[in-house]
Here is the input.
Amino acid sequence: MKKIGFLFSSILTSLLSISEVVHAQAYSNPYATVSPWAELPAGRTFGAVGDTDVDPDGIHIWAVIRCDATSRDRFGDECMDSNLDSILKFNQAGEVVESFGGGMFIWPHGIDVDPDGNVWVTDAVNNSRIPAGDARGHLVRKFSPTGKVLMTLGTPGQEGSGPSHFTSPADVVVGDDGNVFVADGHYENGNSRVVKFDANGNFVKDWGKTGYGPGEFRVLHTIAIDQRGRLFVGDRSNNRLQLFDQEGNFLAMWTQYGRPSGIFFDEHDQIYVADSESDDIQNPGWEMGIRIGDADKGWVNHFIQLPQGDPRNTIGNGAEFVSVDAAGNIYGGEPSTRKLQKYVRVRP
Here is the structure.
């Protein structure tokens, strides 16, 4: 009888686990796509779209566009031999109203627009793709809203650790007090750390290493700050979000948002997480798309699922980055499909 009871208990536990996984993704999608939306000037064709953010006015959208629409087999250095502007600002009609950054990056990746409207961009190029003597890569640049370079963090063209070097920094976020946090570690063989600077660019501290435990990372792909001041890090290859205070103290770990590539918080205390990599190999049982939930408690409420074929082999499709304007419209940066996709809410 004990064996039968144990077997029944095991089966029940398995069924409950399966039910929880199914329920975790059975959310409503009250959004519809707007396509086409964004257009580039003078016949320019979209290259891969990187990170995206919203201007302090809540209306204009900033995005990283990785230069030329080169061969789809080319990935990781699309701006190496291009002088096209890679930082673009769009109005609500999808028209470019400002652009800059031409020739300044090899692989522009993360973007953050601070409360003063300054634009921060990372160059996450792998060291193996930097031409000899090229002073680009492994850096974070701060621009004025019109493209004047105000600050450079890191040593351009040189990978490393410590206060003055990065290794392929993936993303950056600026707090309300001006402190700067860099997700330094787009690759697992990099630094796997968060680096904190003050408003003047002075190194304050860093934390993290490669691994699986709390405060350890495998590809820090995105970083953001919620309205409580908590620092959210997209620990992508560990399929989780890690939460810290701004001194680097570990607070929590969330796995309900899939394999996080992009994070955004809106003015209504909602969190948006873009997952462009969950598949049957990297994160079995999860679907790609944008999950939307309660930024305080962590509950997922909606899910814009990426339509999938069978077998699921579309690794890297859909929104890898996400932002939301003041009206609640969502913007997804899609590198693989080369789109800045807009979503509008069509029902409660």
In short: The mean pLDDT is 91. The two ends are 51 Å apart (CA to CA). The chain has one domain: 30-345.
